[in-house]
Structures are given as structure tokens and as C-alpha cells.
Task: structure prediction
Amino acid sequence: MNDVAANTLKRFGETVGKIKKNKKLSYRKIAANCNIEHSDIKRYVDGKINPTLLSIIDLAKGLSVHPKDLLDF
Result:
């Protein structure tokens, strides 16, 4: 993975993490509200995996935000 991709995943994860923290949600609570395993949500926050478009939409649903809010970094 090149530096630009790694940096983008890191920033995406930081954004998801901030929303999670501000809403005081656990990974399991987010997972219960969407179709993503809690372990994968943690990996997104850690910048370890690249989410698909459908995953971003599901994750936004789990966080009760618009998908564009996850990409605003």
C-alpha cells in the first residue's frame, strides 16, 4: 500500500473514531445498527482495511450520520 492510500485510510478511521466517541457508541452498538461486524469496524477505525462504498453506507447507518460525514476529512 502506498503512502497516500495509507494516509487516506488513517484519516477515514480517525473520522469514524471521532464520530463514535462523540456519540458515545461501542463497536458492538454500531454493529448492531448496521451490517458490519464489530471487529471490522475496529479495523476501519485503525486504518487497517479499505471499506467498500456499501460498507461506508452501512457504517454511516450504524453511526446515524450521512455517508458524506465519514468522508469529510
